[in-house]
Amino acid sequence: MFERFTDQARRTVVLASDAARAHHHDYLGTEHILFGLIRERDGAAARSLESFGVSAAVLDGRLTTGHGEQARSGHIPFTRHAKRILEQSLRETSLLGHERIGTEQILLALIDDRESTGARLLRDVLPVDFEQLRQHILRQVTEHRLTAELGLGPTHLTNLRWTDAEHALCVAAAAEAGQPLDAWMRDRILDAARPGAGTE
Fold it and tell me: CA 31, CA 16: separation in Å to the nearest integer?
């Protein structure tokens, strides 16, 4: 599975291990994965979280620090929940029609496992509910992929901004058509752009 991770997703796991060691924990849990996501500043997950005011500084004060010996220097084992989130990120990737697992898919998997420590920690500091966060992440992913596939520069991103209600309508339409959202949107945009579109 790790061979399908993007560079940002791999760095997230490394940063999660660093967070576990820094807090003298001898396990790598979902709370550490959350820290890794927010500290991997080049990842889509960090950008989404920061847009809602969630930062490493906000989270750090809520994570307990272990006592006693320094955490082991070698491999730190994943908890059951952490393993499940990383496995679920592969499913999120498939649902989006992507080839590689990015930080956004890991974050989507984390907020789906609502009983995990990481999800509870995030829920305490997030000003919106998880469904709103999920819709925000999916919208950002779709906008990014559309601009890449259509060859649009970053300055064109504002032309693809959606409200949550608009995004929900598109999600429903794409599901009815049996297509991933980004593929459905790309088809609609290209259909509208072709000569003669909208005329009899």
Answer: 8
